[in-house]
Amino acid sequence: MAYPQPEDPFLEVQTDVQSTLQTTRHLFSSYLRIRTLTTSATSPELQQSRAELRSNLETLSTDLADLLESVSAVESDPYRFGLDVAEVQRRRQFVKDVGDEVEGMRHELEGVTADTHVAGHGASRNPRLPRPSDFEDDNHDDDDPYEEFEAQQQATMMAEQDEQLDGVFQTVGVLRGQAEDMGRELEEQGHMLDEVDRLADRVGGKLTVGVKKVGEVIRKNEDSMSSCCIAVLIFVLLILLILLIVL
User: Fold this and answer.
1) I need a labelling partner for 130 at 20 to 30 A (CA). Which of 84, 106, 114, 163 fits?
2) What is the DSSP letter of 72?
3) pLDDT by residue (tens digit) across 40-90?
């Protein structure tokens, strides 16, 4: 399996894009909030928020174009660049996902800007934006873009947290299973050691008794004939002990 090279320009730009995208999301949320609360299309705060958001969107568009060009360059022969097909597909999907999100924010920004521009020419006597409360009766069922975006962000965060928790639970389950297996193995080894100790004690006791009996026989029989008998008895005793141990 091929892996990305350590110094991969795509990964460096991807990191910058992720950082810029996170900042842009906050700017977009702030822009929607300001746009919802403001009463003037020429509000300095609204114009500044719109300018900052537009600047970030342009930066993201430029970076995404570079990333897309990079993907197109390597997808014909990814293994030549130390990549595999799955990694190339992941990169193209990343560019698509970020591009869709950027286009959504740009559509929201440019759509409102165009509507405001047309309204300014068609109703020059009233250059102010309508208050949010003016739409409560007529468009009561319309969703607030700011609330919808915040809800999407919360849902994404919750999904990521659920995945992380699932990973933690799986890791804990694996570790617990390994600990239980180790405990059973240690318990079995303990039983085996206890059995060996019992066998050793039993054999040692029998050897001690046999040696004592042989000593008593030696002391009682000092002549040569007795010594021969004793030797035979010792030999027989050793054979019996060996057979006892084996059996």
Assistant:
1) 106
2) H
3) 878 899 999 999 999 999 999 999 999 999 999 998 889 998 999 999 999
In a domain, 197, yes or no: no
Both tokens assigned to 164: 């992380």
Of 81, 116, 151, the one marking the end of a domain is 116
End-to-end CA distance of the chain: 58
Crossing angle for the helix pair 145-220 and 224-246, nearest 10 degrees? 160
Residue 125 domain flag: no
Nearest to 48 by CA among 29, 60, 34: 34
Which two structure tokens, joined as six digits, stand for 15?
């990191």
The model's pLDDT over 176-199, given as tens digits with 9 standing for 90+, comes to 777 677 778 778 888 888 887 777
State which residues form the domain around 44: 8-116
Distance of CA 243 to the CA centre of its chain: 62
Residue 171 located in a structural domain: no
User: Is residue 159 in some structural domain?
Assistant: no
- Please give the single-letter amino acid code of residue 161: Q
Neighbours of 24 (CB within 10 A): 23
Q: Residue 210 carries which DSSP code?
A: H
- Last residue of a domain, which of 61, 87, 116? 116
d(C-alpha 136, C-alpha 127), whole Å: 21
The Cα 44–Cα 49 span in angstroms is: 8
